[in-house]
Write a structure and sequence with these properties.
The structure is a homotrimer of 381-residue chains. Helix content of chain A is 21%, strand content 30%. By secondary structure, chain A is of the alpha+beta class. The longest helix of chain A has 38 residues, at 305-342.
Chain lengths: 381, 381, 381
């Protein structure tokens, strides 16, 4: 089986080799998959992440996930899911029947006396549902605590989360770096989010010191990095070419995005955004080498059920179209345009980073050092 | 030129290495190509099998086949077949003209004094037409007898054959194994063939002895294997999951499919099927690594021309739609669903066969031992 | 990085190894790209040739070309060209701004104090506009004189040129060889160009001596080869198969195409054609391994502006549809039909050339010996 990345290339990227190799993502981490609302009681759905194909179902409210491939001849259950007893999946081909919770082969209807029954099975993956997202632990190690794989604040009891899920034709790392990249703000200079929202949106940022980030790698809790833009950068509101002013940033009274951080296994937190009362949490979940799911959510602190339904209304009628689509759609096409270059692994050392990208280098190093494993094709067979 | 299959994988499949390697089929065997009715007098048709591209034509009733690629600059004649003298093909590009029977270069109209004329040519393949099918011997050895490459009974004088040809997006071996696999009966549990046909169709089979097959490898005649289901298996009519009955097989009075056998180079015989008066013969002919032609035929013994036209009517008005399409369409999608896994060669040792699959293992061994060669990309250049 | 062509194959093609290797074309030559009329003042256009992606623009009438990939994160400028100062291109992603003439990084609007400014840049390519075509020098050597990369007569002051540009799904070498190949005339035997044009068009040519070409490889000027058909060949007007006459060539009074020559880096001259008053010049410009631009032009000597507009009318109303499309469309599909075979590198030694193809062998040798370099994937990173 050929290596994910040519060893010569990895050597040239010696500051963050794991990151360059992790085309399919990092293993033994929690990833959001479907939104809770996407999986009804008794429903079966196929879902591809980290190059693997999963089958999800919901039984008495609880979600279970197994690899979507029969032990016997390898066909996907999801091609025609058959369920004859709650909590099981029967393969449509030869009636191998598995327990959805454990993956155990509990029966074979075409040969009920087979010696295989009760002695083998398929991979089952730990599942946790939180804040309207179905998280799956992709790996075979003992699962970590979910709180160690999400940004600070996301699981807070008083925070209500709402979001959307989209497929993007770019590697997941392109997603992470587009999100954490401060100067990519330039692409948003004409965003419809700016119409009628009095926010300050500069054209770029001049770093005023090298120390513009805070790395979090305590034993307990998530591993991530804060980019302290507000403290160590000077926003650029005048765009100049060869001494001539040619562009203006959007001067507004409202300060947003003062606190931007990225966390393993690939999730961004922007606080506050797109409004002083909201925080954006967004995941870039590997599908395969060339695609990721972009799961963008907004969180707001709520105290009452009136708060909650007010937020639900505001989300549906304002923020979903204006921020999660209108504003972030620019990011989607930017990532897809970047993929053409980065699908060649040589790109990781042929690129030419500049001063504001120091946070991106730091993120690559943190991810290389603190990931719990690299997903490889061997894991999928 | 890279090997068809990684040698490490072949070593892990040491019980039937030739079979695992024969992605493009076995060489030096007879294969059906077009139905006779698909090729009219004087017509030229391109046809791809075993990774090779053929040009077929019919001259005074007789069919000829050459490789569909000009000797000179490699273009396919079939792009614009030009024929200026019966029994020849002239390349549309530079007028190299070949005899369709021998492949010999008999003239070059653009340079009629060329030294090449009469001294070289293209590959011509032996052809035999039988029972409404055009058979071609794919190889360069002395052709075997056609009767050694078809199932017993197929060529019997009193048997009338009718069939259809379909393209399936799966390797040819997936086709063979789907056909010979007894417990795949499970996928047909709701087939429209069962409506109004009083046949017995169980959900599966429990082997009651290890000795459920008969291998035929005499020097003369076809090489194949019978699965003696009726003798050594117990049909399963009650489907149970964890002790609970959840499904019923189709209990009918009519016994069919008591005699199932598979033959080199990849053809199944089911007798009787789909009716006590009929036998099904079906071929899985490699097109390329990922596709095969599924040529499914029904045979009936006939004594008179009234019998023959009664069968023709019955075939057109009943069996074609009910059996060769309605029932077998389930097999087509099952094979296509299996291809995703088996297109990775690792599948041949990652699969988990169970007791009723012993006939499949036996078939793989027989094919590995008795084939007349493996088709390789070198043969196509 | 894997080699363009397997070394074993190159060894078997030892008469013209460079030619066989030059799938992506020859480097350090001038190639026509867009027609002048395809690029308006201030417009930006992406254009792929020799596997590379260029961005072209026109500033105060002059054309400039840079590689269409930002230095920083590799995105194509052409995805959303932004120009804030004449003669510059600003990357839409992080506002890296380059001088279109030199490729120099002249500003970064998102971080105007970056140390990179003025110290680095992207590849800029020499451009010359002549006879309605935009020529680009694809390489990094000192550019040659344009006159050394075009056929004799093309740049003559009294010659007016008009043409069209088409994309063909075949390697560029297939284009060259189809054009220079004398016996491919066979495919044009029913061309609409023959209707009402009294030209002589034989079915083929019998070489009457081995010495049917004149090689031009002076130090100065273009390198090419003339095929002296009129002097050393006998035209074939009777097509025979096994002694029987089956076809007739087109007997006309007008003699055309008496002087056919091909020139590095891949351009044909047919004189006169399609009429005694015209000369055809046509280029086969590599796009990638599997496609080329076919830039076909006609030239006529003119003395006055009335001559020029008469030619313009005649070109638009007659020759464009009759010759550059009607007649040459046959060549396009012939090339595309040939690509299937030649996309396998083995084709270069599996082909079977015949006597009239000696000019093609000579062309391959000339190209192998006199090219200024082979374009490789390394050059594109």
């Amino acid at each position: 089986m050929k290596p994910l990345v040519d060893p010569d290339i990895l050597e040239k990227c010696s500051l963050y080799p794991d990151y360059v190799e992790a085309k399919l993502g990092f293993r033994n981490h929690w990833y959001p998959t479907l939104l809770s609302e996407e999986l009804a009681e008794g429903e079966f759905k196929a879902h591809e992440i980290l190059g693997d194909r999963l089958l999800l179902t919901r039984v008495d409210g609880e979600v279970f996930a197994v690899r979507d491939r029969c032990l016997h001849r390898g066909v996907p259950f999801s091609r025609k899911p058959e369920c004859y007893k709650k909590g099981t999946i029967t393969c449509w081909y030869h009636a191998f029947t598995f327990d959805m919770a454990s993956g155990e082969l509990v029966d074979i209807m075409t040969n009920p006396r087979s010696n295989l029954i009760g002695k083998t099975g398929i991979a089952a993956f730990p599942v946790q549902e939180a804040k309207g997202l179905i998280f799956i632990f992709m790996g075979d190690d003992e699962p970590a605590a979910l709180k160690d794989d999400v940004p600070p604040g996301f699981l807070d009891e008083d925070v209500c989360i709402r979001g959307i899920r989209q497929e993007v034709a770019a590697n997941w790392r392109i997603g992470c770096e587009n999100g954490f990249d401060s100067t990519h703000v330039f692409i948003h200079k004409e965003s419809i989010l700016l119409d009628g929202n009095d926010i300050a949106l500069p054209l770029g940022f001049v770093p005023t010191s090298r120390d513009t980030f805070k790395v979090v790698t305590e034993e307990e809790g998530p591993k991530g990095i804060y980019d302290l833009l507000a403290e160590h950068c000077e926003p650029v509101f005048e765009g100049t070419v060869q001494g001539e002013t040619v562009l203006q940033g959007h001067m507004g009274e409202t300060r947003v995005a003062s606190d931007i951080s990225i966390w393993l296994p690939g999730v961004l937190r922007v606080d506050p955004w797109p409004d002083p009362s909201l925080t954006q949490f967004e995941w870039y979940v590997p599908i395969d080498e060339e695609r990721h799911y972009y799961i963008a959510t907004l969180g707001r602190k709520i105290a009452t059920s009136e708060d909650e339904s007010a937020f639900a209304d505001e989300f549906e009628n304002k923020w979903k179209d204006l921020a999660l689509r209108g504003f972030n759609d620019d990011d989607i096409w930017a990532r897809e345009a970047q993929q053409t270059f980065y699908k060649n692994d040589e790109a990781w050392y042929k690129e030419q980073l500049f001063e504001p990208d120091r946070n991106i280098s730091k993120w690559r190093q943190l991810a290389s050092e603190h990931n719990r494993g690299i997903q490889r094709y061997e894991h999928l067979l």
